[in-house]
Amino acid sequence: MQNYYGALGHLFTAARATQMICLIAIIGMASNFIAEIIAVEQAPGSLLIGTLTITCISTLYITITYILYLDNALSFLLSTAIDSLLLIALIVIATKTGMPISYLSCASLSNSGGSTSAFVESVKDNLQASNYWVWVGASRTSCYEMKAIWGLAIALCILFFVSAVATVCMWRREKAMMKAPAKDIEG
């Protein structure tokens, strides 16, 4: 069967490419925060570890499924199910990250305030309580980075919804093409 899904195929390709860009950005920013927390000999919070884990798994998944799609070997229903599971995981990440982060006013923070790691060192007790809004406020840059992670997680929710809808629609198209009567080649 020819790998032709028209606009749905293009939508799936665009969603996968945009998902990959968002995931790589989140991996870089979350890794930076974890490195700075570890630099001051603190344990990174479960939200950051979970975010990094989900994004790494998602990056591998997207790479594999897109290769399978190009080779016409992608199970669209399985892909829809996994996209839906990742959507749920990302909704949890976006919600948990957004609760404290949404209250921050990054513009009111100092541009040259200390590093995140220095600020984390000074608020050890608050970190034990998983108050991410405390350490993210170390500087304006750190605040914007954490808000970027939150925003990209929200964007990924939308993108995984779009790719799940696209794969279920491609599955239906593929199913309809298989059921269609074969055309007479001679006539």
Protein structure class: mainly alpha
* Nearest-integer average pLDDT: 82
Distance between the termini: 21 Å
Number of domains: 1
Tally of DSSP β-strands: 0
State which percent range the strand residues make up. under 5%
Helix content: over 70%
Description:
Helix 1 packs antiparallel against helix 2, helix 1 crosses helix 4 and helix 2 runs antiparallel to helix 3. The chain is elongated. The protein has one domain. Helix content is 76%, strand content 0%. About 5% of the residues have low confidence. The protein is built from seven helices and no strands. The protein is mainly alpha-helical and 187 residues long.
Task: Provide a short characterization of the protein structure.
By secondary structure, the protein is mostly helical. The chain has helices at 6-39, 46-70, 76-101, 116-122, 124-128, 132-136, 140-179.
Fold topology:
Elements: H1 6-39, H2 46-70, H3 76-101, H4 116-122, H5 124-128, H6 132-136, H7 140-179
Keyword list:
mainly alpha; 7 helices; 76% helix
